[in-house]
Write a structure and sequence with these properties.
This protein is of the alpha+beta class and about 180 residues long. Strands 1-2-3-4-5-6-8-7 form an 8-stranded mixed sheet, sandwiched between helices. A hairpin with a 3-residue loop joins strand 1 and strand 2. Helix 1 crosses helix 2. It is globular, with a radius of gyration of 15 Å.
Amino acid sequence: MELTTPRLLLREFHCADHAAVHAFASDPEVVRYTDWGPNDPQDTTAFLRETIEHTTATPRTTFALAIVDQSAGTLIGSIQLAVTGAGRRQAEIGYVLARSQWGHGYATEATQALIRFGFEGLGLHKVSATCDPANVASARVLTNVGMQPAGRLRDHLYIRGQWRDRLLFAAVSAEY
């Protein structure tokens, strides 16, 4: 599976992506608001193995894709759409970019493309996402792609020894 945008290629991961993925997944600042990481090399290997296994699942419910800068040909991040309950018509989306790629609009561009794929390609009704309330940049991305604030999830995730809230955003196909 591949999706293209004006600047990006969203493609399946390969084992050869280990170094590029590990470079951002092991960066404490990149994973500051995530419930995983920073990765050690074995964590990155396990992530790649799992994402590659998802490509052959029937039915496929997880679309974890590498974000590649087309002009440079470099892998700069990861984005995932995971189909959840309600008759397989809902999904959750998440993304992470290498720190050097922040502030260029890549997260917005990739997220918009994957949401469109969810609605048009998979027939989803709703796509949701969460982010840490302190992650202002991620909340801006979710708003910029047309997702609406849908609430605050109190003590939603236990991350690095403390319970963290999450802001919930959602988009429905009829409004997108």
